[in-house]
Amino acid sequence: MRRLRPVSICVRPPHSLAVLGGGLLPALLAWLVARPPASAPPAPALGTYDPWLRFRCEINTADSAALERLPGIGPVLARRIVEQRERLGGFRTVEEVLTVTGLRRQWNACSRYLLIDPLKGEELHKARRQSLQAAGPLPDLNTADSLALVQRAGLPGWLTRRLIRYRQASGGFSDWNHVARTWDLKPAQLEALQAAFSLKPPPALDLNAADYAALDRLPGIGERRAKAILNYREALGFFARVEQLREVYNLPDSVYERIRARVRVGQPLPPPPLAVNLASAEELARHPYLRKVARRLVRYRHEAGLFRNLDDLLAAGLIDSTDRDRLRPYLRFDR
Fold first, then answer.
1. 52-131 belongs to which CATH class?
2. How far apart are alpha carbons 219 and 301 in whole angstroms?
3. Residue 124 burial by Cβ neighbours in a 10 Å radius (0-12, 13-18, 19+)
4. Would you say 235 and 288 are in contact if contact means Cβ atoms under 8 Å apart?
5. What is the Cα–Cα distance from 175 to 171, expressed in whole angstroms?
């Protein structure tokens, strides 16, 4: 029988741990101690030289020759800047500068070279207002033409045309809040208008003399409502009070409130058109206030006799006290 030799077993640590403990860890510590210090971050590069900065100028004092040297501004735009500055009296804000026609497109190219002194601009504005007032009464904005709007307030041509169209469609501006509702009209441009023009509200429109075109120009009226007002006036005979517009079909209270100050009822009123004791039921029924009682009124007239006044109608139960007040201008009692 063969004898087996005893085998000794030796447990060794893994190779990685042996290496780390044997030489890698000291080498790593030596490298950390001996490595060079981290270099400082590079200094930021200086901005490139801009040769145009030497032409930088204050927009309220520069002449056209100085302005046209700037990038994006040629002779035409430089002349427009000077002309607009003279119209406004001076530039106080960027918004006022951008009212110059064509400058908005070049603003990114030239803005860094233009300085705006608000105090200087306000001083020039004040001097401009004083010169306008010293020249005599300010013209009325409701009668000013497009040339006056451009020369006195510095509005661009497209905005001038828009403001005039809005004025015509509204039948004239009633106040400055009305003007401010013009589409794309900036606060600076509204202020320029207030300095250069007065504003007289248009005369109130006589409801009994107005034609279709005049009614159509009232704010919020338009074609259909103008026809409805004329039809109702014809049915009544005439308007006795402005408040009767509330009775017009399809006329909202919001529209009535907008036009109430723009209309009036001319005096004296026409004579009463309806003869209560002589008109037929059909004739009486055409009047909006008698439509429901016309046949009863004629029947009562045949049975009880002629009416002497509105109190007889009230006593007969045909109308109430409210009807009596609103019927008074329309009825006569011929016998």
1. mainly alpha
2. 45
3. buried
4. yes
5. 12
Site of tokens 């208008």? 193
Range 205-264 has CATH code 1.10.150.320: yes
Burial group, residue 23, by CB count within 10 angstroms (0-12, 13-18, 19+): exposed
* Cα angle 113-114-116, degrees, rounded to a multiple of 5: 150
Any idea which residue has 């009070």 for tokens? 241
pLDDT per residue of the chain (335 residues) written in tens, 0 to 9: 455 455 444 445 555 444 445 566 666 666 666 665 544 445 545 557 788 888 899 999 999 999 999 999 999 999 999 998 988 888 988 988 988 889 999 999 999 999 999 898 888 888 888 888 888 889 999 999 999 998 888 888 889 999 999 888 777 888 899 899 999 898 888 988 998 999 998 888 999 999 998 898 888 898 999 999 999 999 999 999 999 999 999 899 999 998 888 899 998 999 999 999 999 999 999 999 999 999 999 999 999 999 999 999 999 999 998 899 999 999 999 88
Indicate the SS3 state at residue 273: coil
312/308 Cα distance (integer angstroms): 6
| Domain regions of the chain by residue span | 52-131, 137-196, 205-264, 274-332
> Identical fold at 52-131 and 205-264?
yes
β-pair partners for 331: 274
Tokens of 220: 């919020």
Q: Quick one: 242 exposed, middle or buried, by C-beta within 10 A (0-12, 13-18, 19+)?
A: middle
Q: Which of 72, 34, 33 is nearest to 52 (CA)?
A: 72
Which is it for strands 331-332 and 274-275: parallel, antiparallel or unpaired?
parallel
How many other CB atoms are there within 10 angstroms of residue 7's CB atom? 5
pTM: 0.58
Helix (H, G, I), strand (E, B) or coil at 198: strand
